[in-house]
Amino acid sequence: MKKFTLLAAAAAFAISANAQFVAETPYFDQSVTAGKVSIFDITLGNESVFEALQAHGQTTNDYRLNDSEGGPATICLYIWSSGETFRSVESAYPSVGYDELDMGGGYVNLAVADAFWSGAGFFVKPEANYNTTHWTDDTRFHLALRCPNQNPPETVTLTLLDGDLEGSGKAVFCVGAAAEGNPVVAPQIGDDWFAIDLSLGDVKKLCEGFTYVSSEAWTGNLLAFSAGGVEGKGISLDALYFYTLTDEDVVIADPDDAVHAVANDALFVVTNETVNVAGAESIELYDLAGRLVKKANGSVLGIGELKGAYLVKAGNAVKKIVK
After folding, report:
1. Considering the entire predicted model, what is its pTM?
2. Whether the Cβ atoms of residue 120 and residue 79 lie closer than 8 Å to each other
């Protein structure tokens, strides 16, 4: 396994130059083109996301991590240097859902350990049959990021498609401050999810020597990442996928399925004094660290005394509010 070189921050980030690579929202629905089928190759995403995408007529390929399911592991998250450079961090913050935050969980939370460098990679073995034959320069890479412990690294360095097949050429770029001359695609991570979203054609323009290989059994590090070498710096990753727009029209057998798959944001009515959620049996209010602040039985929760940003949960629906 390759050793990951510690990268030091070198320059400040100019957001105006790279804002085009930050998605409007981190959610999966922003990747859906109305009326057309896209192929989603998903490595981080919970079951509700698959259900919603399929209900909207999209094609999903399940390339999620399977290194903890008891069988032969074919897609794994390796923490480098024998697992010594990152440690797991608990976080109750919701995951990235189809069109809103989702309590389904299933994302990656890590903090830099005491090895003075950090590195990890989502490794795909040939037995995973990871098919890239439908990829083109218009195929897009999507990744959601946040900090789980209010201690973000200055720079997150991402290495994309470091394949083991002949003809592969990896791309390296940064989130946050620049490092070792690699291009910056997004600002420093913070408390809330945000996503980078760029085409493989964009990556070619950004990273000299980048090439991707068409294969029915792609193998290598799909995505590797470093958060520097300062102990305690935290990083969360979710909504890791590639998506490719096709010319195929969407056909939905039961249109009601699509309706039910979309969370109705209008259910939440927020005033300066209350949160109302029609039909809710209870409402819970969390801070951005995932700690329960208040709970009310019924469909109304009083928030008049509160200030700041919070997450409101009613059933499986979650909405962020700011007072």
Report:
1. 0.79
2. yes
Count of Cβ atoms closer than 10 Å to residue 104 Cβ: 16
Tens digits of residue pLDDT in 106-160: 799 999 999 999 999 999 999 999 999 999 999 999 999 999 999 999 999 999 9
Q: Give the number of C-alpha atoms closer than 13 A to the C-alpha of residue 311, restricted to the C-beta side.
A: 23
Strand-pairing partners, residue 249, are 36
3-class secondary structure for the chain? CCCCCCCCEEECCCHHHHHHHECCCCCHHHHCCCCEEEEEEECCCCHHHHHHHHHCCCEEEECCCCCCCCCCCCEEEEEHHHHCCEEECCCCCCEECCCCEECCCCCEEEEECCCCCCCEEEEECHHHCECCCCCCCCCEEEEEEECCCCCCCCEEEEEEEEECCCCCECEEEEEECEECCECEEECCCCCCCEEEEEEHHHHHHHCCCCECCCCCCECEEEEEEECCCCCCCEEEEEEEEEEEEEEEECCCCCHHHHHHHCCCHHHEEECCCEEEECCCCEEEEECCCCCEEEEEECCEEECCCCCCEEEEEECCEEEEEEC
